[in-house]
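Incident log entry.

Two folding requests arrived from the same account within the same minute. Monitoring flagged them as a possible duplicate submission, but the sequences differ. Recording both here for audit purposes.

Request one:
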Amino acid sequence: MPAPRIALVHAMPLAVEPVSRVFGERWPQARITHLLDDSLPPDLQAAGSITPAIVERFVTLARYSEKAGADAILFTCSAFGTAIEAARDAVKVPVLKPNEAMLEEALAAGTDLGLIVTFEPSIPSLKKEIEELASSRGIRLKLRTRTVPAAIAALQQGRTTEHDSLIAAAAADMGPCDALMLGQFSMVSAAAGIRGGKVLTSPHSAVTRLKQIFDVR
């Protein structure tokens, strides 16, 4: 029986390489495919919120992925939570939000959590997700957030070392917490430079969850 085919649906080109690398490290047998619509982030910023038209686009992307043979779908952009929920309801295969596995891992680590993002529109979606998850479990959450837009600008220009340094500085400024979450898939490279405490990245948590879904040891 062939390994599962996992459709990775991206809104930013910067997410492609990091998540591919994590699959290569943690689950090289998975058959991964990539689908990219990089018009989604600017359209979200222009609209100011997730519109019905954006939701419909996510539903279309999920249905396309399913028809193309995906056994599961992983969306990799953190700013589109409600649209991904609608996409999940539209198909029969498992659909993962970018950060849901990471958020659960963070809550298992404690209640004092930090969140760093490099794409500002991700904050409302991520805060809503983790606050709802904490509330459903009766957890009183302390959440601190930082946005580092200069980091993603540096990464887009190929300055990975600067990107990682800016995120490490934001983490140091935030101070100790039970778990620090890096909210963009493109932030994976920064994790190694953050000192002290538990650091979680979306791709690592998501791949671990997918392996659990398909009972892969």
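Request two (distinct sequence, not a duplicate):
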Amino acid sequence: MISSTQNSSSITPPTDCRIWKEKYRREDYIFTSSSIILNILTCPMIVFINSLVIVAVIKKRRLQTMYNMLLACLAATDLVVGVVVQPSFILGEISIITGSIAADYCRLFRQTVFAFLYPSLTSLLLLALLSIERCVAIKYSLRYFEIVTKFRLIVAVIFCYITAALPTALSLTLPPSRLNSSLTIAIACASLLVIIHCQIFVYLVSRRHRKQIQAVQVSQGAKRKFLEETKAVKTTSIIIGFVLFSYVPFVLYQFIRRYYFAHVILSCVPLILSCILINSLCNPIIYCWRSSILRKALVELLRRNNNTG
């Protein structure tokens, strides 16, 4: 049970860390224990499969396309979730059912949210960059390698990492203020707007190209390239869809909490946050499901490791 008698003045309200001057109830144990088990099971898988994707893209020359490099960068942010955020989250949830002081739990909970802010924003920015890359690949297929160069891609990725770090840097250097929250929301909204715009644009262009291919005889090579680009677009769309879907429970929680505040709704927070964290496992699974080349490369790496072991 969480101790609420010590340092009660420093305990933050439930909107911040769930626990607020009250005993830990039975339903809290159910939700918290479920989230602990879920994250303990998925954390090693997230670390393993995302590490494997990164190594495969680095080692296998045939995988070193601009698109796959962006997927590897996205896998790196998911790896941070498995290495840093999930262990911190598990530790906090374990402490809450083993008798920690509420103020200590609130501090650890805020640190977990703080740690998750950077990879979360980075993922959104990288998804926006992926969407832009797909726009160029579909719209300017003949000039793709002139527009999307390795140097430009590296600069764009560095820009994503630096931009995502701005709210965290402000939080470390300045006292908490609305500026940090506003900047975080602005980056997230800008990324979402770019993603939505690019997805609509790519859909319209792909539909027009498909009609042209059906109406005019084109070479098998051009048709094959269009189908490959279209498949990559669909993969990106599925990844974006899963990311947005993982945030649906959190958005619903924020909406319901404003009009119907109940303890049982507050108790769902560990599982709601777990949905977002486990998305880091969905992304590499989608890569492997959609790309036979990547699947073969991962199998080759595993076989080589088993043989050397």
